[in-house]
Design a protein that fits this description.
By secondary structure, the protein is mainly alpha-helical. Helix content is 71%, strand content 0%. It has one domain: Orthogonal Bundle (Arc Repressor Mutant, subunit A). About 4% of the residues have low confidence.
């Protein structure tokens, strides 16, 4: 972030404080990073169902089809979540970041983020149960 600010110091017009200017740069970077994570997760979910299974698992065909249907149902339910829950759950699902890092990226306190992840998981589970999908 500081390297980016250093490279763009010529664009600083002095209309705001340096602190505000740096915060704006950090915020735009965080939003860009969040969009890239969401994009990667969408590609992962939208990837061919066969891409998630090893080529020779030796499992029965009907079990493989059940797994495919489960993944599709989960993807549909996650897409239907309100954005604040979906973003928290998808970011958490990457496993790449701490709650502090994720909370900074989403602009919410860590406690709020933990609650959103928990609430999203609960909602997904409830919807899947209502659909008769077993996990």
């Amino acid at each position: 972030m500081f390297l980016r600010a250093f490279r763009r110091i010529g664009g600083f017009r002095g209309e705001a404080t340096v602190k505000t200017w740096l915060l704006a740069i950090a915020w735009r970077q965080a939003l860009s990073h969040r969009r890239s994570i969401a994009s990667r997760l969408r590609r992962f979910i939208a990837a061919g169902d066969d891409a998630l299974d090893p080529p020779s698992t030796g499992r029965l065909q009907d079990q493989a089809l059940a797994d495919i249907e489960l993944r599709r149902a989960v993807a549909r339910v996650v897409r239907a979540l309100p954005a604040k829950y979906r973003e928290a759950l998808m970011l958490f699902a990457t496993g790449d970041h701490t709650f502090d890092e994720m909370s900074q990226a989403l602009g919410v306190p860590a406690g709020t983020l933990k609650w959103r992840v928990s609430e999203a998981r609960k909602r997904v589970k409830q919807k899947l149960e209502r659909l008769g999908v077993t996990t």
